[in-house]
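re: the backbone from monday

yeah here it is again, tokenized this time
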């Protein structure tokens, strides 16, 4: 396996010579207490264009743009900007980093275990992009074209600008362009009966894509002895898919799907020092998300139509007080409050006749509050101990098809330890009780009713999933520049959320999200970075990460243990890059490993297998302000296979109706982008 080779290379790299060579001049020093500062010179040969390019180059670091959850805690990803998480959700973290020019970055700090004044957001490792104090204007204009193997030519235009003057910063950007959906393509489909007889034999022609029409802006300014940042976004993202299934014996099945999402948000952060040892931070955030989904399916003698209109709003306020109690002890206390609303309307018709769907008309209101406190102690050289306690309360009310009111409360302790043992070694331990957030998408009926024929109902009466998480990580940084990080994580789960049967008069008639009881999840993660100079590849680097995962929960239908729906047993990726400064070029190969997902529903088991994605890219910089990027995508012609094992009734009865296998291949594509920078 590629990751095994990477790990072996890293280990052999460290002992390749009896007399270890000094680290390259660009290699940053390891600071005390687990903070490594990477100046711009550390990335000089790569000549990155944005902060995002620099973050991807950090040794032993895997970028995570965050989760789409309600509230601010835990949603910001694992990169900070000037020590702060972004006050934005719809404007993704990678998009924010791409708007920061590399020339505006003073350094990037890799924080392992914790640092004074830094909120680790419950993570053991984060990166902090520190911007330089500059003045004047900078900007960039990008134009791209995407040549798809089916003949489509998709274009995009993007612009961004930053202006800084007298301590004030203004930012603006826009994106308008089309992009493909690389999970749909062309390929065969076959449906087999319970004894192997062919029921359907067809060829699928599927095209899908979407449009991004996004406008974002932000400003920062000194205010009343502190600093204020305001940001906003208006993002319209329509998407559609057209699937034609031509039966070999004559006739066809046809599906057309549209999803129009409008996202708007406003956010602000104000921070101020209250003396030499104390800082106050206040954050406010408001977002509006409107989604319209339409899905129509036609087959001989059959027509299904699904319509969903959903509106979600979120209002969040958060305040944090941080104080340095001594040179080795810092404390943090604060609170967060949120108000969330959902208004959903669903209609499902079969051959023109309305079909009742559980939780089709739902209005939900949730109020949530959380108080938290953290104490951090920095002991001897390289030792950091952090203890935290959070208490969350919430109240949820639902009207419409499902009427309910309930209150929830959870206490969430956290204890973490980081020890830098010398010689480039660090050990990190964490014990924490995590409580997931209820996903409003689980509250309403799903549009999968059209593409699979199964009714996927909603359920507002859910408890959030909880987990006691134990984690241990070992990091080794070699003088050669190689980095190896191994992590083991064990989660004891309660109130696992998965699909559960919906009963009517004692008979299972549909399935919906439900709490299945206790479960478990075990993960092993290996992250490896290997510079290749000593192996004769000047300016070359290999980075890879692999995750092995096991999960278990008792099936509500069969009573037998099985994996949790949607959990991927194996995920991996590998990236090779080489910088060729003399040619003003860098090139590389990105490999995103294939994965498998499985979903357990009332009358079917769906398995989705996604093949490996391979991209070869090159960037040429004829001038400092001009970059041409070429990507040859999907060279291995990745396929996406969906297998549906459908039963006559509940699958616990074991009466198989058919097995439907669809194997689609997206094909190769060529992507070309020209970027012109100003200032």
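seq for it, each position gets an aa:
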């Amino acid at each position: 396996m590629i990751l095994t080779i990477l790990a072996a290379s890293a280990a052999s790299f460290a002992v390749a010579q009896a007399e270890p060579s000094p680290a390259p001049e660009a290699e940053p020093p390891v600071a005390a207490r687990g903070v490594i500062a990477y100046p711009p010179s550390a990335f000089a040969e790569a000549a990155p264009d944005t902060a995002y390019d620099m973050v991807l180059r950090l040794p032993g670091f895997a970028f995570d743009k965050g989760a789409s959850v309600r509230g601010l805690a835990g949603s910001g990803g694992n990169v900070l900007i000037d020590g702060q998480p972004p006050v934005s959700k719809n404007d993704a973290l990678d998009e924010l980093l791409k708007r920061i020019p590399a020339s505006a970055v003073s350094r990037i700090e890799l924080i392992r275990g914790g640092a004074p004044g830094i909120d680790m957001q419950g993570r053991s490792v984060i990166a902090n992009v520190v911007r330089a104090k500059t003045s004047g204007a900078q900007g960039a204009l990008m134009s791209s074209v995407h040549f798809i193997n089916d003949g489509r030519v998709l274009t995009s235009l993007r612009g961004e600008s930053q202006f800084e003057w007298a301590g004030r910063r203004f930012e603006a950007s826009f994106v308008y362009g089309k992009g493909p959906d690389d999970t749909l393509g062309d390929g065969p489909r076959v449906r087999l009966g319970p004894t192997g007889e062919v029921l359907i034999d067809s060829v699928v022609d599927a095209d899908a894509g979407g449009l991004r029409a996004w406008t974002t802006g932000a400003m920062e300014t000194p205010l009343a002895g502190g600093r204020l940042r305001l940001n906003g976004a208006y993002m319209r993202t329509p998407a559609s898919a057209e699937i034609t299934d031509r039966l070999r014996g004559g006739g066809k099945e046809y599906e057309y799907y549209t999803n129009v999402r409008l996202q708007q948000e406003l956010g602000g952060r104000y921070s101020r020092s209250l003396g030499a040892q104390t800082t106050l931070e206040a954050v406010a955030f408001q977002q509006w998300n409107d989604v319209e989904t339409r899905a129509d399916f036609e087959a001989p003698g059959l027509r299904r139509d699904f319509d969903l209109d959903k509106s979600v709003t979120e209002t969040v306020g958060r305040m944090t007080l941080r104080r340095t109690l001594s040179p080795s002890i810092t404390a943090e206390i604060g609170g967060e409050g949120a108000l969330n609303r959902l208004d959903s309307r669903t209609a499902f018709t079969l051959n023109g006749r309305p079909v009742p769907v559980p939780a089709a008309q739902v209005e939900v209101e949730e109020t949530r509050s959380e108080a938290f406190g953290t104490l951090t102690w920095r002991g001897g050289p390289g030792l950091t101990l952090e203890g935290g306690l959070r208490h969350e309360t919430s109240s949820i009310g639902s009207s419409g098809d499902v009427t309910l009111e309930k209150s929830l409360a959870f206490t969430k302790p956290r204890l973490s330890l980081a020890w830098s043992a010398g010689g480039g070694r660090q050990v990190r331990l964490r014990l924490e009780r995590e409580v997931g957030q209820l996903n409003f998408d689980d509250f309403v009926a799903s549009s999968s009713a059209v593409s699979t024929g199964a009714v996927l109902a909603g359920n507002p009466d859910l408890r959030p999933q909880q987990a006691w998480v134990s984690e241990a990580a070992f990091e080794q940084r070699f003088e050669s520049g190689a980095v190896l990080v191994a992590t083991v994580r064990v989660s004891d789960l309660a109130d696992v959320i998965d699909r559960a049967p919906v009963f009517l008069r004692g008979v299972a008639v549909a399935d919906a999200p439900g709490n299945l009881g206790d479960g478990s999840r075990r993960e092993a993660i290996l992250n490896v970075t290997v510079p290749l100079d000593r192996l004769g590849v000047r300016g070359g680097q290999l980075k890879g990460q692999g995750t092995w995962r096991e999960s278990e929960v008792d099936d509500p239908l069969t009573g037998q243990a099985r994996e949790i729906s949607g959990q991927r047993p194996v995920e991996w990726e590998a990236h090779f890059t080489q910088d060729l400064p003399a040619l003003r070029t860098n090139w590389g190969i990105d490999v995103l490993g294939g994965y498998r997902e499985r979903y357990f529903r009332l009358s079917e088991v769906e398995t989705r297998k996604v093949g490996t994605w391979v991209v070869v890219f090159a960037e040429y910089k004829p001038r400092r302000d001009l970059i041409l990027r070429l990507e040859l995508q999907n060279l291995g012609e990745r396929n996406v296979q969906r297998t549906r094992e459908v039963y006559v009734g509940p699958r616990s009865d074991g009466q198989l109706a058919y097995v439907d296998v669809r194997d689609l291949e997206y094909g190769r594509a060529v992507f070309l982008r020209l970027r012109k920078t100003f200032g």
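Residues 1-32 have pLDDT under 50 and may be disordered. The CA atoms of residues 461 and 486 lie 39 Å apart.
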